[in-house]
Design brief:
3-stranded parallel beta sheet, binds adenosine-5'-tetraphosphate
């Protein structure tokens, strides 16, 4: 039986956080076993914020090397850079014309980002439609997402339904896959806020390249609560700080939250933090070793990048041709 198709992307907007690893890359690695996966380095999406040429170039190769270090296989899956496949922008324009202004105005991520961003460009507004193009271009069945992206998947489905209602079954309607244990890793000092690589306060995040010393400092300063006696239990509503730390530890050690709660029964918050520090340091040191192995071979990385684009284009062209033919843009 043909494997179902997964599509997911990541922006080359700088060094990744443990949130990006838990919410995206570690999931990607696991999904490869069961699905045919198409992973995209979303450089076009990253342009919604000004990018310096050399930095963007470097970030793209960095992300590719991190993906390989996390176990993304260019043989099993397709990994490519979004701008290398022009069909994304082509489909984007067409889907713009099938999306209502009103539904775009309701996108909560846009509303949140305009408070933080002085450069409110149309690209930022259009971001979810480009994402819809990414997904629909590959006839994607499933999209692994963090909680913050659920609304964008709903929009993608709405656009696909709308298009299909007019022209017949052109697009596969994608479904989301939500990783319940780690769909949103929160800031270390404000567990009501998502951990984000572009967060201006570095104390909020664990960067995959933080040294052991910095990791120790950041975890020691991570917010917990003042419950007495201390209670190490997952309860996001009442104990967001401890719950966030438990999710991080659970994902890094691949030990269930239930088991962790048992292990830390009658222990204090310092014990929990020490365990997170030890496990994170071991885990990240191993990951970085693999990363440098790939990052030092640019020729190999570029080869993977160009080969990935070639394979992605082949798939993307099939859908785009179908769309062009159906709406009356092709001539024979
Ligand atoms: N805190 C998080 N918890 C779980 N998953 C997360 N992801 C991001 N942050 C968390 C997942 O990582 C993937 C790639 O994200 P992206 O780079 O395309 O953009 P993003 O979601 O906007 O990630 P950041 O870190 O917040 O980036 P900036 O600061 O550049 O906007 C996605 O699958 C996302 O769900």
């Amino acid at each position: 039986m043909k494997k179902k198709i997964i599509f997911s992307g990541i922006q080359p907007t700088g060094s990744l956080t443990i949130g990006n690893y838990i919410g995206a890359l570690s999931q990607w690695r696991k999904l490869q076993k069961k699905y045919f996966c198409i992973f995209c380095i979303a450089d076009l999406h990253s342009l919604t914020i000004y990018q310096k040429k050399d930095v963007l170039n470097k970030n793209i190769l960095d992300i590719l090397a991190i993906c390989l270090a996390c176990g993304i296989s260019p043989e099993k899956s397709i990994i490519f850079v979004q701008s290398h496949v022009p069909q994304h922008s082509q489909l984007n324009w067409i889907l713009n014309c099938f999306t209502n202004f009103g539904e775009m105005k309701r996108m909560t991520q846009f509303k949140e980002k305009i408070y933080l961003n002085k450069n409110i460009n149309i690209g930022l507004f259009n971001y979810p439609i480009l994402m819809a193009s990414d997904i629909l271009l590959y006839q994607t069945n499933k999209v692994p997402v963090g909680k913050d992206q659920i609304q964008h998947i709903e929009l993608t489905r709405d656009i696909a339904y709308r298009f299909n209602n007019i022209y017949g079954n052109i697009f596969t309607i994608p479904e989301k896959i939500l990783n319940t244990n780690g769909s949103c890793i929160m800031s270390l000092t404000n567990p009501q806020k998502k951990m984000s690589k572009s967060d201006p306060d570095n104390n909020n995040i664990i960067d995959l390249f933080d040294s052991d010393f910095i990791i120790k400092q950041k975890i020691k300063n991570a917010i917990t609560d003042s419950n007495y006696p201390p209670n190490i239990k997952y309860d996001f509503k009442n104990k967001p700080g401890i719950s966030n730390l438990l999710i991080i530890l659970s994902n890094i050690t691949e030990c269930s939250i239930k088991k962790l709660e048992q292990n830390f029964k009658n222990k204090n918050y310092n014990n929990l933090k020490e365990s997170i520090i030890d496990n994170l340091c071991i885990f990240l040191n191993k990951l970085r070793k693999k990363y440098f192995f790939y990052r030092n071979d640019e020729k190999y990385l570029k080869n993977i990048m160009f080969n990935g684009a070639k394979r992605a284009k082949k798939q993307a062209n099939i859908t785009l041709k179908k769309v062009y033919d159906t709406i009356g843009l092709s001539f024979k």
